[in-house]
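To whoever picks this up:

The nightly regression suite flagged Renal dipeptidase family protein as changed. Nothing in the input moved, so I suspect the structure step. Input below, exactly as stored in the fixture:
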Amino acid sequence: MKHLINAAAAPAAMKNLRAALAENECVALIAEHAAYLRDKGGIQCVAIGTDFDGIEGNLEIADSAGMELLAEALRKRGFTESEVELVFYKNVLRVMEDAMR
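Regenerated output under the current build:
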């Protein structure tokens, strides 16, 4: 990997994410974190995974139908359409294909 991400920042990021979840501001914060990772490590190290099982409450993205909210938030942060595709599935697909070689 060309760049390394500061792993020490992860606990603070998770605390911010929990606070955002409580205030229903999760989508904007996820987009902010994705932009940070893209700017520090490159678009090739940003990917989104989802798991909606067992999550309850009034969430911005309650199921897969809400993922367009995140795509739009990424676009507002300056992500191109090709970068949104990389984040949503192409980066993970690349890693999985590399792992199966």
